[in-house]
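Quick check before the chapter quiz. The format below is the same one you will see on the exam, so make sure you can read both the input and the output lines.
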Amino acid sequence: MCTGSSAGLAEGALQERHSLPSVRSLGVPRTLTLAYDSTTADVRPIIGLDSTLLQRAAVPEEFSITLEVGNVIQGATVFYNSSPLPENADSISRLVAQFDASALPTGRYTYSTDVFSRYASSRIGTTVSNKVVVVNRRQSLVGAGWGFAGLQRLYTQPDGGAMIEDGTGGALVFDASAQGSFSTTANMNSRRGDNPFAAPLPDGGLAFGD
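Here is the expected output.
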């Protein structure tokens, strides 16, 4: 495994890898690699939505997004100035919301977002729900955000599913199936959301999430 620093562009994560001196066991060299991911030390996941405004829809003054996790509103509503969007073409706007998950244990959580197109005297919107993966290593025995690459941990979920943290800050997500078995999610290596989705807005737009 490579050592050194890298950046996760999706969440702005700083990632570090440091290989420790190897030892021989049963005639095989074995090396432990320390792995750091800043998003598992400063646990504030980012939820992203792509809002598509179709040409036939009037351009709103603003978009807004309100995030709720575990039936608790997370922070203030975020507003985006949408007035520069073109009137004569389809457009896509990236809307994001971030929340503080430092008190949540590692696991998968249901969230909902209220997305609105806001006009001078009215607003039109929809609620979009999905799940987000939280990997919290603030209390790691080797330091906040640190773990050993390849040293996996299994977390059972309240909905009967399971999640495996891979030691680097990534997560593999499994849904419960019949007779005690598990099946992988459509996109199981994700800390932002399990599946891409599209939700129609009443004004003719679409909200896409991941």
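If your answer matched, good. The two ends are 28 Å apart (CA to CA).
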